[in-house]
Each structure stands twice: as structure tokens, then as C-alpha cells.
Amino acid sequence: MDRQTVGSTNRGRLQVEVRTEGRSEVVAVAGELDHHTAELLREPLDDAIEQGRVRLVVDCSRLEFCDSTGLNVLLGARLKADAAGGGVHLAGMLPVVARVFEITGADAVFTVHDTVEEALAD
């Protein structure tokens, strides 16, 4: 975790920022989510769920790449959040990332929104 910015982690190719908006935990990701960077996202998602913040909005508007490891992190968070009575909402996916979700069928198991604002209003 980058200790200079509270709620922020950064390891080269991926940056994760976390903030609370009403009843939701907004997790903004920027860069490349893959085998080497997945833990940077898994940790704040798990922490939020452990703290009872089970309505997660993942802001994907600056996520440029997501491989199967990244997809598995999001699916794992979805299972944990659902089991705790919450859910994972994805917002603002770029076409290249949306295509990965479409090809794998993962888009059918997430609530997907065009914007973070829409996800927060849902």
C-alpha cells in the first residue's frame, strides 16, 4: 500500500483507490489487472467485505487490461459480497475490458453500469 495516499495502492501498472460513498465502497482501478497486480485489488475488496462494506462498486473507467486472474479476483469478491448480502457492481468498463467479460460470460453474473453515478444510484 502506498502510505503517502490513504486508501491508495500502486504497483507500477495498477493503481487502486478506495473511498466510501453512502452505503457503497467505491474501488477505482487504473492500469493493468493481471497475475502480477491482482493482489493490489484483492486486498481492498477483501478488506471492505471483512469490514461489512458489502456493496462494492468497481470503477473500471481507467482499467486498460484484465486477464483471467483479474477476472477471478472480481468473481471471488462477488461470491463473498453476495454471501454477506451485498454485491459487486462494475462501472464504466472500456470496450477492451468489457470484451473479456463478454467472451467469458462473466458479464452475466455482475451488475454492469455505464457510470459510477449509475451504479451508486442503483
How would you portray this structure in words?
This protein has 122 residues and is of the alpha/beta class. It has four helices and six strands, in the order βββαβαβαβα. It has helices at 38-50, 68-83, 95-104, 116-121, and strands spanning 8-11, 14-21, 24-33, 55-66, 87-91, 111-113. A six-stranded mixed sheet has the order 1-2-3-4-5-6. A hairpin with a 2-residue loop joins β1 and β2. It is globular. It starts with 7 loop residues before the first strand and ends with a helix. Residues 1-8 have low confidence and may be disordered.
Layout of strands and helices, then pairs:
Blueprint: E1 8-11, E2 14-21, E3 24-33, H1 38-50, E4 55-66, H2 68-83, E5 87-91, H3 95-104, E6 111-113, H4 116-121
Parallel strand pairs: 3-4, 4-5, 5-6
Antiparallel strand pairs: 1-2, 2-3
List keywords for this structure.
about 120 residues, six-stranded mixed sheet
Concise summary:
Helix content is 37%, strand content 34%. The protein is α/β, with parallel strands linked by helices and 122 residues long.
Low-confidence stretches: 1-8
Main sheet characteristics: 6 strands, mixed
Helical proportion, percent range = 25-40%
What is the average per-residue confidence, as pLDDT, rounded to a whole number?
A: 91
Quickly count the helices.
Answer: 4
Distance between the termini: 30 Å
